[in-house]
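Justification of computing resources. Each target in the renewal requires a structure prediction run like the one illustrated here; the chain below, 174 residues long, is used simply to show the kind of job we budget for.
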Amino acid sequence: MVFTFYLNAQPVTVDVPPDITLLALLREHLGLTGTKCGCGVGECGACSIILDGEVVNSCLVLAPQVAGRSLLTIEGFSGVDGGPGDLQQAFIDAGAVQCGFCTPGMILAAAAVLAKHPHPTRREIADGLAGNLCRCTGYQQIIEAVQLAARRRTEVAEPSEQAVPDAESRTWKN
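Resulting structure tokens:
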């Protein structure tokens, strides 16, 4: 079956069997191995992607169901310099990565939380991450990473005070 969809903001046309899962399409046909195969039955969240703004388990979606739609995988996240994006950096800084297996799915779920709740409560974060299992961190660091990313985004978005010259000392003050 031939169809086109948007993958990480780029149009992609594929020709695959109609019964292939989106997870298999991403990993086996497109070489995007950041999306992990954990359980294969939608329980662990390791295969989480964002489809038209919503987090979904790619192991439960047939590939042809994404025809004409927009899909975001972990490979679509990066900073402007090609390094880690702000959310990925917050996970690193908060120690929210252990073995790393769940990390791509967690980051995508966290991105969806922050899209809906720019200043999320702990409960909103926990609820948004509920479909993603982590056996290493105990979730504390993951929640802290999402909070850190939210704080950093707020700091960047808020204009700082304009620096003005101090007439007495001819130095700049904020």
